[in-house]
Design brief:
Helix content: 25-40%
Shape: globular
Mean pLDDT: 93
Structural class: alpha+beta
CATH architecture: 4-Layer Sandwich
Protein name: Protein phosphatase 2C domain-containing protein
Oligomer: single chain
Strand content: 25-35%
CATH class: Alpha Beta
CATH topology: Phosphatase 2c, domain 1
CATH superfamily: PPM-type phosphatase domain
Strand order of the largest sheet: 1-12-9-6-7
Order of helices and strands: EHEEHHEEEEEEHEEHHHE
Number of domains: 1
Pfam family, one: PP2C_2
Largest sheet: 5 strands, antiparallel
Organism: Pseudomonas arcuscaelestis
């Protein structure tokens, strides 16, 4: 019987540690059940460094997206198309707007990027607003699903809270299930991607996917801590000083 193994973790960047900051990344990887049909949802949100409460925006985004998927599981069927991505982003925007109104702050104070992958044997949808990346194996080896999107100027990107957020929403549909998927924030782009080619750096992903695929009752509770330790390791911090988040799902027999 096929089943999903999941793992996710985030680690603060050294630049944020030096400024006595907090980790502004959030992520999750969860399995959902729709009357016996298994779905996996992988989400990553990266809070804007310039926004006062961006870590709260990122957390709201992840929690809201998972709540949206949980509600969909009660339906007999739903469309696996761009309208699903639009619904989730709209739900996130509404949740952030409500939080902003309650705190008397502009929604920009909660700015974050968002990346999502929703997969089952029936198909896969990936979508994102902003930078970071989604890498998956749809049966032809690892590929970068969507090109990370930056803003008009260097070191800028798009956020869920932007007025034109839905115009900057990228979406791609795969008509079949995938074998493995990983979403990550822009703090990992230099390690996870061959930026010149716009392709995944396979040696980065292969050992992680193998580790997740081989989880058992003993190692499964330890994987999130191990992944967080890896993201916060000297090996990774030598390549990036930003927050890092990584959410993974692997289909195993």
């Amino acid at each position: 019987m096929m089943s999903w193994e999941c793992a996710s973790a985030a680690a603060i960047g050294t630049a944020h540690v030096e400024r006595d900051g907090v980790c502004q990344d959030r992520c999750s990887s969860r399995v959902f059940d729709q009357s016996g049909t298994k779905w996996v949802a992988v989400f990553v949100a990266d809070g804007a460094g310039s926004a006062q409460h961006s870590e709260l925006g990122a957390e709201l985004a992840i929690n809201t997206a998972n709540e949206s998927i949980a509600q969909l599981m009660h339906l007999a069927e739903f469309s696996l198309d761009e309208s699903l991505a639009v619904q989730i982003i709209s739900d996130i925007r509404q949740a952030i707007a409500f939080a902003a109104e309650g705190s008397g702050l502009p929604t920009r104070s909660f700015a974050c990027t968002f990346l999502g992958a929703i997969c089952s044997a029936a198909g896969t949808i990936v979508f994102q607003i902003g930078d970071g990346g989604i890498v998956l194996d749809a049966g032809h080896g690892l590929e970068l699903a969507l090109e990370p999107k930056n803003g008009e100027y260097a070191n800028m990107t798009h956020f869920c809270t932007d007025a034109d957020a839905l115009k900057n929403l990228q979406c791609r549909i795969y008509p079949a299930g995938v074998k493995a998927v990983a979403a990550f924030s822009d703090g990992l782009q230099r390690l996870a991607l061959d930026m010149a080619r716009g392709e995944p750096h396979v040696p980065f992903f292969e050992p992680i996917f193998r580790k997740v695929a081989g989880l058992n009752e003993v190692t499964r509770p330890q994987i999130s801590g191990a992944l967080e330790s890896f993201l916060g390791s000297t090996r990774v911090n030598e390549r990036t000083d930003d927050d890092k988040s990584l959410a993974i799902a692997v289909l195993r027999a």
